[in-house]
Amino acid sequence: MGYSDFTSLQKRLLLIFAAAILALGIYEMHPGRRLGAKQAALLEWAQSGSPSAFRDTFAAPDYSDQWGQSAADVVGRMRMVRFSYPGVTVTTENPEISRDGDTAQIRQQLEISGADSPRAAMFTFRWKRQNWLPWSWRLERLDAPELEL
Hints:
Blueprint: H1 3-28, H2 31-48, H3 51-58, E1 59-65, H4 71-84, E2 89-92, E3 96-100, E4 103-113, E5 119-129, E6 137-143
Parallel strand pairs: 1-6
Antiparallel strand pairs: 2-4, 3-4, 4-5, 5-6
Helix pairs in contact: 3-4
């Protein structure tokens, strides 16, 4: 095996490695996969994330919810909840995801446990992709008709 054969083998291995990385990147960048990851990150944030991360990471500029709150209102409310109930946990069921282009709706049963008895409700999250980037999903609206604040 001469020097030119070894270089050719190295080039093939490098090409195979690059193709595998590219395939994995395309798989991970799929908008539906990124939306699922964003939803999971939002629910993880609800338990222990920084209150301001809601506005900075998850909420669309025109976010609203059934309670008439803006993203800034949610930040203030989460600070109050975290102070009053430091051990809040969120238990989830598998989400129902429906997607139409750059908008998506996720319906998911959540159980929220804190200092008082657990509360379960069906939540509807409406997401919108803000630009062509697969990770640009932002939450536009949140509804949970069974839950009163």
